[in-house]
Design goal:
Helix content is 83%, strand content 0%. The protein is mostly helical. Helix 2 packs antiparallel against helix 4, helix 3 packs antiparallel against helix 4 and helix 4 runs antiparallel to helix 5.
Length: 157
Amino acid sequence: MKKAISTITILVMICTFSSCGEKKDAISYNNEMMTIINSEEQHVNEMNVAMQSKKYDDAEKVALKWKNAVSEDIKKVEKLGDFNGDDQLQKAVLQGLQGYGKIVSEDYPKLISIRKSNSPDAEAEQTLLDNINTAFENMANGVNVASDKFEKDYARK
């Protein structure tokens, strides 16, 4: 009986160790990363609706919900880790998410405050809008470049 237990224990250990070094699938990994970063679009749309309808209290709620979602998405990407030692896509997605985090915690609150005020500052508002749009563009470009490179590097041949 003692021999049976140690054989089972050894088999379990072998299975455990062999699964630890399991390589990730490139397509699944890329899809997961893109799904996470693309989920931010929902929050962008919600913010746009609130801001365009001049419902600034709703915009503040969207910003808070979005800020929390970005934090959760960052944790998901960190948990996914790199792709078999290659962290370029992960870094690009994290940088994009951190950019969204900055926008939602710094730029949008300022923009909402300006629009809520009785004497809005058109120049400051335009500067914030330009910063937000430039940040969106830079984040999208960074993730797209990394994703394209990832796809080329790991395309099934």
